């Protein structure tokens, strides 16, 4: 049976699950004093739920949000905006979150559904999709990670080898391909009725998500391995995608409130970035009032990323624009993957791979409309105006598409940062003058660091990864990053 990654730094005993999805999470063991079997349904629920909530955690607001120049943090969280790297606890914690709350669950659930009494091909495919989506985030944050080895840490493999990002991507797209075929023909009764926080057991939506995510990965591969990426893209085009907002991968069943509400009005307090606000204002984008709240004077004012401590102290941070109500209301949704992003990805494929500018423009407009629908705004004037259609050179049209991906991904800011690293748009200029240059000399960070815990517990393999991909620095570009 295939080994699945289970990082040494987070090899833990199976703990009490805290996420509720109907009553399945109360049924981990048949005998609490001597468990013989584990129900894979609560493991799947825990993993899927945690992955959805990962879109609004430290990786997204503190790092992705500020690195993508979408938001600015107050308090000590602002230090990440200075391109510094003294965040060892965060680097360890962000990986731990994915390991402990997602991959640990999928590792066990995959083992249960692979053979024996619990064997279930459809469930196995769904779990594999969740695991791939978690691994994708992990490798895109850190680069080389233990992917093929590990999964049996409880059996003694406590120093897994780190695999190259190229090999990881090859396997992830292959796993998605096989899972899609199984899910498309699957009987929902054999899946996870009452235990699916993504789509409430809708197999068509799961297949669309898996294929849409595969397209996202294929386009990241394109910078590093165009031929292989083209083959994956061609395969994606034969399968269904997320196309309408009712197919969006979302979540709104919080235990308390939408986490963006807490972050905006409590610690660390978030404000909209000047760069993001300028994009919306300069194009008369109808999503402005949905994504950005008025400042205390009734207008709109952002905070510039990278400003010095002196300028920040004089910025009147507290009166600047918060995130919009449709993002932070207690009942607002978290967005994992949307029709808007997928249409824009397809527009990029049409333009750059198939060289069909007319089709690219159609898909571009479909993406805009899907985003307007998502935020419940009237976009007719925008679509009829100068920014509603692709124009200019192929590079100019590419910039239009990729800038709209950046806007559409909000508030999943970790993915916003990944998108900028892949495409180069919107352009994040190297900082100069009295701006905060950090440890990168003002260049946008490209990754997170391997933590000291990793280096101390798996030194030989971590050092091999560093030798393979480059120095353990936040400006070391990863395999697929745009050069």
UniProtKB/TrEMBL annotation:
Keywords: Signal. InterPro entries: SusD-like_2, TPR-like_helical_dom_sf. Residues 1-20 form the signal peptide. It holds the Pfam family SusD-like_2. The keyword Calcium does not apply. This is SusD/RagB family nutrient-binding outer membrane lipoprotein.
């Amino acid at each position: 049976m295939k080994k699945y990654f289970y990082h040494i730094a987070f090899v833990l005993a199976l703990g009490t699950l805290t996420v509720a999805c109907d009553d399945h999470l109360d049924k981990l063991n048949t005998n609490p004093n001597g468990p013989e079997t584990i129900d894979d349904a609560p493991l799947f629920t825990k993993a899927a739920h945690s992955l959805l909530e990962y879109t609004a955690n430290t990786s997204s607001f503190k790092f992705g949000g500020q690195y993508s120049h979408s938001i600015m943090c107050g308090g000590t969280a602002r230090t990440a905006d200075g391109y510094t790297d003294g965040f060892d606890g965060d680097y360890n914690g962000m990986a731990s979150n994915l390991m402990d709350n997602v991959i640990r669950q999928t590792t066990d659930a995959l083992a249960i559904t692979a053979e024996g009494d619990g064997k279930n091909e459809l469930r196995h495919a769904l779990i594999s999709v969740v695991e791939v989506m978690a691994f994708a985030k992990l490798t895109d944050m850190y680069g080389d990670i233990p992917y093929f080895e590990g999964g049996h840490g409880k059996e003694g493999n406590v120093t897994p080898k780190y695999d190259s990002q190229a090999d990881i991507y090859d396997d992830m797209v292959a796993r998605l391909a096989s899972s899609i075929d199984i899910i498309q023909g699957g009987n929902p009764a054999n899946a996870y009725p009452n235990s699916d926080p993504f789509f409430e057991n809708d197999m068509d939506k799961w297949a669309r998500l898996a294929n849409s995510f595969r397209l996202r990965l294929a386009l990241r591969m394109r910078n590093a391995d165009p031929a292989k990426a083209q083959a994956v893209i061609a395969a994606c085009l034969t399968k269904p995608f997320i196309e309408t907002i009712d197919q969006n991968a979302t979540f709104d069943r919080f235990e308390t409130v939408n986490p963006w509400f807490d972050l905006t009005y409590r610690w660390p307090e978030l404000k909209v970035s000047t760069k993001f606000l300028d994009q919306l204002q300069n194009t008369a984008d109808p999503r402005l009032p949905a994504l950005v709240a008025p400042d205390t004077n009734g207008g709109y004012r952002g905070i510039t990323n990278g400003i010095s401590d002196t300028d920040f102290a004089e910025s009147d941070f507290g009166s600047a624009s918060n995130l919009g109500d449709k993002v932070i209301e207690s009942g607002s949704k978290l967005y994992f993957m949307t029709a808007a992003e997928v249409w824009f990805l397809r527009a990029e494929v049409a333009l750059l791979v198939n060289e069909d500018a007319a089709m690219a423009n159609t898909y571009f407009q479909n993406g805009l409309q899907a985003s307007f629908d998502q935020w419940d705004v009237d976009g007719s004037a925008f679509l009829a105006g100068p920014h509603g259609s692709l124009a200019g050179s192929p590079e100019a049209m590419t910039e239009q598409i990729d800038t709209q991906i950046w806007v559409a991904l909000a508030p999943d800011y970790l993915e916003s940062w990944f998108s900028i690293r892949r495409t180069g748009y919107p352009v994040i200029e190297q900082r100069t003058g009295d701006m905060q240059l950090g440890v990168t000399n003002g260049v946008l960070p490209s990754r997170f660091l391997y933590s000291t815990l990793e280096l101390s517990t798996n030194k030989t393999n971590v050092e091999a990864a560093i030798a393979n991909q480059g120095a353990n620095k936040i400006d070391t570009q990863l395999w697929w990053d745009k050069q």
